Predict the structure.
Amino acid sequence: MVALLAILRDRDEIQLRELADLLGASAATIRRDVAALADQGLLIRTHGGARSAGVGAELPVNLRDGRHRPAKAAIARAAVSELPLGKHAISLTGGTTTAEVLRALHHRRDLTIVTNSVGIALEAAHQGQQRVLIAGGVLRPSSLELVGSLAEATFKQINVGTAIVGCDGLSVQGGLTTHDDIEAATNHTMLERASRIIAVVDGSKIGKVTLARLADVADIDLVVTDDTADPVEVERIRALGVQVKLVHTPGDDAPED
């Protein structure tokens, strides 16, 4: 399904028979996948084909997890190396890259982890982390994040040493952006309570702008991304005085975000 959506992002509209040829799948499989994605609002069915639902369509977190995995794992390891030794409080937004950051912290038992992500909290529990604070709020099914005034009220009562934030797009023009304005406002409150902000963003999202801004690029202390990121945009980010750390990652043939 991810590959199908990636084709639509490039082509905007396509016939089902051409999708079947491109993906090496049967016509019945393509019809079934298109129907399922249309039910989720991720594409629009047309007569004999499918059309993109537009730039605002957000991929559910369960469909994002396998994409750019080598890059995200390398980014996570680099971000973790920036954390101080000893007791430290970190906040994590939801997302597949921040989930990789948590996995890279499996050896740390001296951290307090603050999050509004159900997925991150469950991963932390499975990992055996002892100090996890999860902010309450309204659940966004597509991202599994708790958002709104309740979550923001929690974040306003705490201070953390490092906030590690994922996003759907990062550019000098658009800042850090996500698909939902309420999620953006909640995550912005999280970032305000941090002494240091690290953005973990795979290269496909550098230069990309989505609906809602959660922070300006200049508010970030460090961007960790991979060497597939647009070099021109990377230099623009550095020109703002933001440190950018590029990691090398093995080739990844998964579709872009």
